[in-house]
Amino acid sequence: MTATAALTARALLLDMDGTLVNSDASVERVWRRWSERHGLDPDEVMKVVHGRQGYASMALLLPGRPMEQNHADNARMLAEETADTEGVVPIPGAPEFLASLRGLPHALVTSADVPLSTARMAAAGLDLPEVRVTAESVGASKPDPEGFLKGAAELGVAPSDCVVFEDSGAGIAAGRAAGMTVVGVGPRAAFHEPDVVVDDLTRVRVEAVGDGTIRLHIGTSGEGRASAVG
Hints:
Oligomer: single chain
Helix content: 25-40%
Radius of gyration: 17 Å
Number of strands: 12
Mean pLDDT: 91
Strand content: 15-25%
Number of helices: 8
Structural class: alpha/beta
């Protein structure tokens, strides 16, 4: 059964990888090489890394390893990922979705750093939002809510008036912990109980309301599939 949802917000906070940009091919290449170097099962590693900063994933995968080694390893991984944009493409509907947000309060909140987020958005042909919260901006990785709370603060909007768009378990947990409504995007999202799940961004229509409210129509056009969770 096709379900529809209508959400309201005063600002939107957008994850990048898996939400605006499909970078799975690059992420898999880099992390599978890392897995092999450390004698880990690449398939199990890939279950952990989405949505988190690299050092936080490494801390889970190699418990007991000094954190300074994780940070140093993460810096090398970020450089590898930044140089590897082969196969990086926009999530369906992302160009139109971002275009519909021009002039409306929104921010990118990503676990990538500035060079990586710039490279991937460019490779996908997407404009970077004016307000960006990147890895350099926070002291804690998703699932900590710091990034989303910082994005809301920079936009001057209360967390409860924000809607988050996320694809990963870590990101969805961060949005929930920030007290925000969460729209899950793509197949990974459905396993982590966001408020609403959509296949991609073609399923979302943005309407600006005169009082500063943003109304989101989800799954309301064509054969769009959206499901409300909970």
